[in-house]
Amino acid sequence: MEQIDYSVRRSDRARRVRVTVDATRGVEVVLPRRAAEREAAAAVRELAPWIERRIENLARARATVAARGDAVPYLGQLLRVRSEPGRARVHRRGDELLAPGGAGRASALERWYRRAARAEIAPRLGHACGLAGTSYSGLTIRGQRTRWASCSRTGGMSFNWRLLLADEPVLDYVVWHEVCHLEVMDHSPRFWALLGRRCPDYREHARWLRRHGATLVL
Question: CATH homologous superfamily of domain 71-215?
Fold first, then answer.
């Protein structure tokens, strides 16, 4: 087994040792403020097989993203990105996204996806809530690193704009997942039974997100 390089970050909010692996930070161990440094090394040794699988998955994800070339996915389609000098905002025209050139392109694309996410998710939420006989209190679009969506106890909905980089049925599954939380806040057997009735193939889509979630980047 090769030695695993990792960084350590102290957190006043952390209650236990946590290990994360992502494309930007690599392997990071989050330690509670008073935890001994050796606990980081122990956690990395214990989780080494999972860490190595995660690193391999990220490498495959990078290869998948690179293979897209100058195109980005949108709910199962591939949209070609074409830079236009002087443009400030992204505009969709058919199967093309007309985008600013240079260093501002990435941030402009993300802003476009955030706007599109609200336009795609709001009617889906409304439709699902109508079928379920429930309602939500608000919709927020975010770009969390580790969460696809959430539902607060007051009915506030939050969705990750990167879900638009997945196929449409995956987004629909996540919407139903959160709508079911309006009735059952935990992940008890009652929740999964409810989700199974509302979205019978949810396991397939949840599995896809676990396996391919790392590819949902621009």
Answer: Metalloproteases ("zincins"), catalytic domain (3.30.2010.10)
